[in-house]
Amino acid sequence: MVAKESQSELDRGDEAPPFSLPGTDGGTYSLDSFRDSDALLLVFSCNHCPYAQAKFELLNELAAEYDDAAVVGINPNDAEAYPEDSFEKMRAFVESGEVAYDAYLRDESQTVAEAYGATCTPDPFLFRKEGDAWALAYHGRLDDALNPDDEASEIYIHDAIEAVLAGEAVDILDRPSRGCSIKWTED
């Protein structure tokens, strides 16, 4: 397991790249699927990475806490090389309650992860609604626990969501997230 820090193709204010991805519930999701929310937290994540697993509980709590913010996991990992990240295993994580986000999506082609510039799991992107579009408000760590066994003392993403929902700028620095590298397919 090698820790990698995130780096984004997107800057604050940039519009979210569009996508159409299958969800573990059998639906197909796009940015428009979350139009009833005022904030959208997209987290590139997976099942097997200990860094991602360490954030399941926090993301589940955020999904339960906010009715006007959507929490969405997107798994782009190569499931052939990492069978624990297969769509079937994603469904099992949701069915067991281990993952209880508003949606857990599969990016099998990895084009969505590439469009966002996601590099690690977890890699969170928080968007605010601006008209019919989503604009990046924050890209960075969920909290200050950098390693899977660390206990968080500051939950950055909570404050960032609160700011977005209040219509305020997010005054938290975009510190890179840390996690396992995305497992890219071989071309």
Structure description:
By secondary structure, the protein is an alpha+beta fold. It has five helices and ten strands. The protein has helices spanning about 50-55, 55-65, 85-95, 110-115, 155-165; strands at about 5, 20, 30, 40-45, 70-75, 105, 120, 125-130, 135-140, 180. The strands form three sheets. A five-stranded mixed beta sheet has the order 6-5-4-8-9. A three-stranded antiparallel beta sheet has the order 1-10-7. A hairpin with a 2-residue loop joins β8 and β9 (about 135-140). The longest helix is centred in the first third of the chain and has 10 residues, at about 55-65. It is globular, with a radius of gyration of 15 Å. The two termini are about 20 Å apart.
The chain-level structural class is alpha+beta
Helix content: 10-25%
Please report the number of helical segments.
5
State the major sheet: 5 strands, mixed
> How would you describe the oligomerization state of the chains in this entry?
single chain
Portion of residues in beta strands equals 25-35%
Compressed to H and E, one letter per element, the order equals: EEEEHHEHEHEEEHE
Low-confidence stretches: none
Strand order of the largest sheet: 6-5-4-8-9
Radius of gyration, whole Å: 15 Å
Mean pLDDT over all positions: 94
Query: How many E strands?
Result: 10
How many angstroms does the end-to-end distance come to? 22 Å
